[in-house]
Structure formats: structure tokens, C-alpha cells
Design a protein that fits this description.
The complex is a heterodimer of chains A (133) and B (560).
Chain A (H helix, E strand, L loop, with lengths): L3 E3 L2 E3 L10 E5 L15 E8 L6 H12 L5 E6 L6 H6 L4 E3 L6 H5 L19 H4 L2
Parallel strand pairs in A: 3-4, 4-5, 5-6
Antiparallel strand pairs in A: 1-2, 1-6
Chain B lengths: L5 H22 L5 H9 L3 E3 L4 E5 L5 E3 H14 L3 E4 L5 E3 L7 H9 L17 E2 L13 H12 L14 E4 L13 E7 L5 E7 L11 E8 L3 H15 L10 H8 L1 H15 L8 H9 L21 H8 E3 L5 E6 L10 E3 H14 L3 E4 L5 E7 L3 H10 L14 E2 L14 H10 L3 H7 L4 E4 L13 E8 L2 E8 L10 E2 L9 H15 L7 H8 L2 H24 L1
């Protein structure tokens, strides 16, 4: 069974009401620029990861958050596994639909795999070298 | 030596814990074979022909004696008491047990080492000139810049699932000893007329199946923009690099398909958004990283010592001793290319002994060169004779650096599951054929590189002579190319149909004879002659002779 994680917790899914807007789904080949003007009116954006090793969605997420200012729910769907979660969250995802067969409780631990990152990211807008003080 | 701060250490420790858990889940059947492959590879763990292979990172080839002793210790306790230094300045263990790898990583972490991103479709170990910091033509100490890029690339969340592996090389001197033209990204440090440091940026070079020379994207990128510009390149590659065909997934194919000018425009367009953003480097960070490197405390020596006339010592000094920017000091290559030993292999006992030499003669540090030798970078010239005696007793003083028998060679079909053919026996047969040192020195500078398959781990395309193992209907054959060069980068040309393994030493001999006849002086190297007269005369000599031999054999058969 696929499990949804939202806000670092196991969440239950409810269909968005019409006034919340539509669900926008982006494939790895989609250009976030093409949906930029709709981002204020959507219930959530889903980015698909069709394969375990396909990392295009990481760049798409950063662009959505950093360049196009999207603030709503950003959900990773598809072949999303425990070992992606840390990177996904760093790139700006806040919801994760785990693929079938993932142990959801174990997956939650993945957010704490690393306590620090060198790079600037959505989660840590300043790189480590600007936070050392 | 870069010394970790508490955060560097914590990140490496957390990686050990993470990988231990991944291994546990795999062994418990919770991670599929395929998924675990993607995870273990980015920790340097391959499943090879006979056993797993673990590739341990030696960032930019720099190693302390404490670390080398730990590697010896690990190879004794978890492997077969030897290791193999690779062309990417890493160390490979060929016989570890899968379930013990987390323990090996924990041992490595105890000496500030790891196996992070030594494989997999991510940014690999950053390589550089093995004379960084001591070369007399230095512009910047490239180790500092390599470390800054190492930190930026380590677990970079956006660029951890790239279309394919990604290799960055940094060269900090006027001369290019890092082969920047044949990397996904090559950075060549420069100083502009105002004295500001920056980098010439090349993109899209590489070896492998489709060898290419990199294209210059920027003639001068000021240092503070280094990371944002790298981010722009990687983002364009991550989004648009081909993922449909493994053999077309490297950035060089994207650069070729777009054309370098169009590709440059794309990078510039992306960079326009990132430039001057938070990843822009600041002087404080460069200083901080510089200060975390230990520096040798050189003595004030008047000048280079007079070297004693000892038989054999001269040849070693000529080939294996290199100039140093500090008077009275020299850099020394310990050759791992002794005939009869697979190139780049060292035993655990040798590792301990080498650590002893580095402690006594070179401030407790050493470097791994991409030619698979070890470098003691800071030796007092008055100690050279004593060091030579000790190195000779250990079998590490073969005076062949830059010569034909200093062969770069991948592990090949003896170990590697990807190989089409064996490479180590070919190297040995050539070394045995050319065992006359006087002759070797007469031939002069010649890089001979061997790869067991088109993945080109042995860098055959940039050897003056390159040998490539190919598979023909299940048999091992060898293609020969000539005229390649590491810097300035040039790719070799195939001289013709491939050969059986037993014929290779003869072929090399014919090539050398042709060269010796054609060179205008001793100063004209093999590769210079190939570039001057082309491959035809070499080809005629080799195949003419091969043809001759075939007809000789036929005649013998007819007479029998």
C-alpha cells in the first residue's frame, strides 16, 4: 500500500475541494516555466519520479520553489523510496507518496539521515559556509 | 592534508550509519537488488567478477600516513592484504565481504576517510595535479579548490541522481597535469591582468565509448562565481542530459547534440538566475579551508644538495625526481610499475613501509597520481640517495616515470565484470619485452595506457600509445591507437584491425622502431613524431610486418 507522508508524518489523503483548485502534475520532461502563471491557483503540485534513478524532479522542485515562488504543497509521486526523502525535502518537497512496499515507519527516520548539509537548498537557503558565523 | 572539522566528521559518520541501515534492509529483503545497486554504487561498492569491489575515496589524491596505515590494516583484516590505486586517485579493494562493508566504512571514518560518491550517477572524486602545492609553475593551490568543490558536491540534493557519472578535474598550475580537457568539467586556474584568480571552464570532454575534448565555456570565471556556475552546468545537464540510453548519457553527448555555442547560451541563461546568489563564494570561506590544510614546515636550505654518483641512482633521479618550488626540496615518484606487479597494486606491507618513508622523508603525507604511482612531495634533496636506497629495497624505485613501462592499466578481465579482455597480462608482456633500461631511456618519454573495455578506465585514448581490449565472438582482441596525449588533450587514432594478445609486444616494438627511425632528434618524442608524420608510416610498418608474418606462417605450414 502506498503511504502518504506530509509534514514528516504519515497522513491520510482527502480529495481537494473545488475551491482549493486543481492538482497540477509535472513529468520529468515538463518545464516548470510553462505552469508558472497557474501556481497561485492550484491545490497542489505533484512531480512524478518514473524511475528510482531519475533525478530531474529534484531540479524541477527547486525551480518551482526558488524561481517561481510556489508556496503550496509540493508532492513527490512515483518511484519514491525511503532513500530519496532527505534529498527530496532539501529540494523543497513537503509531501511524499511512497511507492508500494515501502515501510512507512522506517521511512520517517530518513529525514534525519543527515543533520547538516554543505549546500544551499530550499530547506537551507544559505550554504554552510555562510552559516558558520 | 585537509583536517575535518566537527561537521565534516559528523556527515561522514552519518553516512556510515545510513549505509549500514541500507545494507541491513537489503540483506533482510526490504530493498530490491536494483534499488540497492543504485545506493551501494554511490558508496563505491560494486559486485564484481569474483567478489564485491570497494572503491575508497582519496579526495584529490592526498593521503596522510595515518590514513595509509589504516588502509593497510583494513586490507589485512577485511581483504587479501593488498589494494589497487586507480587512475582516479582512489584505492580499490577487490575482495571485501558485502556484509562487512559498513564496518570498513566505520574504520575509514575514524581516519577522516570514506567511499562517498566513488561510483554511481553522481559527482565523483575531484581529481587534480599530483604536484599541487609544490610545483614551481603554480598559480593556485588546487587542493583548496578541490576541497571546496568536494564539499559542494557531497550529497548535493539536486545532483545526486544525474543521468550518468560526472567527473571534475582542477588544475592549479600553468602546465596541465590534471587532463582538464578530458573531463565532464575541467577547471584550469588563471590569474587575470588585475591579479584576480579565476578559472577557464571546459565542459564535455571525456574518454569512454565516445572520447571527446572539452569545449571552453568561459575563458575566465572569477573564483567567487565558481559554485553558482557549476550549479548552472549541472542543472542544465540534470534536466536535459539523455536518460534513454546509458551510452549517450554523459554531458559530452548533450554538448555535442546541442552544439557548444547553444550549450553555452543555456548555461549562461541558467546562470543569470544563480549568479550572485547565496552560493557565491566569499573570501572568508577560501581562507577557512586554506587554514584547515596542514602545511609542511620547510627548513631554510641554501640550495639543492649535490647528488652522489651512485650506479642506478642517476637514472632514478632523472626519471623519478621532480622540481620543487622550495629550494633544497624535491618531489619523488615511488613507482608502482615494477615489471611482474599489476600496475597500481600495493601490498599491505608495502603500504606500511611507504607510510614509514613518508613519515621520515616527506612530512607524513603522500599523493596518489592518476598514473597510479605514489608521490612523496616534499623530500630534502640531501635525503634523496637514502630514500632511493630504501625505496629500491621495497621494489618501489623502478626508474620509469614517463617511460614506456610506466603503464597506466585498469584491472581488466582479471577482476572487472565490465571488461572485454584482460589488461594486466598485456602490461606485463610489454614490460618484459622492454626490460632494457638503457633502451627505455633512449626511447624517451612515452605514455602507454591500457583499458580492458571501452569504458576507458585505463585512459587509452590519451596514451601516446593506447591499447583497448575488445571482444570478438567471445575472444579477447586488442586494438592499438597512437598519437593520443593527456595535455594538451588529444585523442589517439586507431592504426587498424585488432591483434591477438601474444602479438602486442611485437606491435609495440614495430611502433618504437618506426619512431626511432623517424625522429629528428632525441628531443622529438614519440607522440610528436606521430603528430608530425601521421599514423601511416607506423601502420605500414606494423601491418606490413603482420602480413609478412602471416605469409611466413603459411609457407611454414606448406613445408611441414
Amino acid at each position: 500500500m502506498a503511504t502518504l507522508i506530509r509534514g514528516r508524518r504519515i497522513a491520510s489523503e482527502s480529495a481537494p475541494s473545488p475551491e482549493q483548485g486543481e492538482v497540477l502534475r509535472l513529468e520529468p520532461t515538463d518545464d516548470p516555466a510553462s505552469v508558472a502563471d497557474r501556481l497561485g491557483r492550484v491545490a497542489r503540485v505533484e512531480v512524478n519520479f518514473p524511475k528510482f534513478g531519475d533525478g530531474r524532479g529534484f531540479s524541477i522542485a527547486r525551480l518551482l520553489r526558488e524561481r517561481y515562488g510556489y508556496r503550496g504543497e509540493l508532492r513527490a509521486v512515483g518511484q519514491v523510496g525511503r532513500d530519496h526523502l532527505f534529498y527530496l525535502e532539501s529540494c523543497g518537497f513537503d509531501a511524499f507518496l511512497l511507492r508500494d512496499g515501502e515501510d512507512a515507519e522506517e521511512a520517517l527516520a530518513a529525514f534525519n539521515d543527515f543533520s547538516e548539509s554543505y549546500q544551499a537548498s530550499v530547506k537551507r537557503p544559505l550554504p554552510l559556509f555562510r552559516r558558520r558565523g | 592534508m585537509y583536517l575535518y572539522d566537527p561537521i565534516d566528521q559528523r556527515i561522514v559518520d552519518e553516512r556510515v550509519k545510513q549505509f549500514r541501515d541500507q545494507t541491513r534492509r537489503f540483506l533482510a529483503g526490504k530493498l530490491s537488488e536494483d534499488d540497492f545497486r543504485a545506493l551501494r554504487l554511490r558508496n563505491g561498492l560494486y559486485i564484481q567478477r569474483y567478489a564485491p569491489m570497494l572503491r575508497i575515496a582519496i579526495p584529490y589524491g592526498l593521503l596522510s600516513t595515518r590514513q595509509l596505515r589504516k588502509l593497510a590494516d583494513i586490507s589485512r583484516r577485511y581483504d587479501r592484504a593488498y589494494g589497487h590505486f586507480s587512475t582516479r586517485q582512489n584505492l580499490q579493494l577487490n575482495w571485501p565481504r558485502l556484509e562487512q562493508v559498513p564496518d570498513i566504512l566505520a574504520e575509514l571514518a575514524s581516519v577522516q576517510m570514506h567511499a562517498i560518491q566513488t561510483s554511481g550517477n553522481c559527482i565523483r572524486n575531484i581529481t587534480t595535479d599530483h604536484f599541487a602545492g609544490v610545483a614551481s609553475d603554480e598559480i593556485v593551490d588546487s587542493f583548496v579548490w578541490c576541497e571546496i568543490i568536494r564539499q559542494w558536491s557531497t550529497f548535493n540534493p539536486e545532483f545526486s541522481y544525474l543521468p550518468r557519472k560526472f567527473k571534475i578535474a582542477v588544475n592549479g598550475s600553468i602546465g596541465d597535469r590534471a587532463a582538464v580537457a578530458v573531463h565532464d568539467i575541467g577547471l584550469h586556474a588563471l590569474k587575470n591582468p588585475e591579479g584576480e584568480i579565476g578559472f577557464k571552464v571546459l565542459v564535455g570532454g571525456g574518454l569512454g565509448r565516445t572520447p571527446m575534448i572539452g569545449h571552453v565555456m568561459r575563458e575566465f570565471l572569477p573564483w567567487r562565481h565558481l559554485l553558482t556556475y557549476l550549479e548552472a552546468i549541472l542543472r542544465v545537464y540534470n534536466r536535459y542530459g539523455r536518460r534513454d540510453n546509458l551510452n549517450k548519457a554523459r554531458i559530452k553527448i548533450l554538448v555535442k547534440e546541442r552544439g557548444p555555442d547553444k550549450f553555452r547560451e543555456e548555461i549562461e541563461a541558467e546562470w543569470a538566475h544563480l549568479k550572485d546568489g547565496p552560493s557565491t563564494l566569499i573570501p572568508e570561506e577560501i581562507e577557512r579551508v586554506e587554514k584547515r590544510f596542514t602545511r609542511p614546515k620547510y627548513e631554510k636550505l641554501e640550495s639543492d644538495a649535490v647528488l652522489p654518483p651512485l650506479p642506478g641512482f642517476d637514472a632514478w633521479v632523472k626519471r623519478n625526481v621532480h622540481p620543487h618550488k622550495v629550494p633544497g626540496y624535491a618531489a619523488v615518484t615511488l613507482s608502482l610499475k615494477k615489471t611482474g606487479v599489476p600496475p597500481g597494486d600495493v601490498t599491505a606491507d608495502q603500504m606500511d613501509a611507504i607510510a614509514g618513508l613518508a613519515d621520515r622523508y616527506s612530512f607524513g603525507e603522500l599523493r596518489v597520481s592518476h598514473e597510479q604511482n605514489l608521490i612523496l612531495a616534499d623530500v630534502r634533496s640531501r635525503d634523496l640517495a637514502a630514500l632511493w636506497r630504501e625505496a629500491r629495497a621495497l621494489g618501489l624505485a623502478t626508474p620509469n616515470v614517463g617511460l614506456l613501462t610506466n603503464i597506466i592499466c585498469c584491472p581488466g578481465g582479471d577482476f572487472c565484470a565490465l571488461a572485454n579482455a584482460k589488461s594486466i597480462p598485456v602490461a606485463q608482456a610489454i614490460q618484459e619485452r622492454f626490460d632494457d633500461l638503457d633502451y627505455l631511456h633512449e626511447i624517451g618519454e612515452l605514455d602507454l595506457n591500457i583499458s580492458g573495455c571501452m569504458n576507458a578506465c585505463g585512459h587509452h585514448h590519451v596514451g601516446h600509445v593506447g591499447i583497448l581490449g575488445v571482444d570478438k565472438n567471445g575472444e579477447e582482441w586488442y586494438q592499438v591507437e597512437i598519437g593520443g596525449n593527456q595535455a594538451p588533450g588529444a585523442l589517439g587514432k586507431v592504426i587498424g584491425p585488432s591483434f591477438a594478445r601474444a602479438d602486442i609486444p611485437d606491435v609495440i616494438e614495430r611502433l618504437i622502431e618506426t619512431y626511432l627511425e623517424q625522429r629528428d632528434s632525441e628531443a622529438e618524442r614519440f607522440v610528436d613524431v606521430v603528430q608530425r608524420i601521421g599514423i601511416e608510416p607506423f601502420k605500414e610498418r606494423v601491418y606490413g610486418n603482420a602480413h609478412q608474418r602471416a605469409s611466413d606462417r603459411e609457407r611454414e605450414r606448406a613445408l611441414a
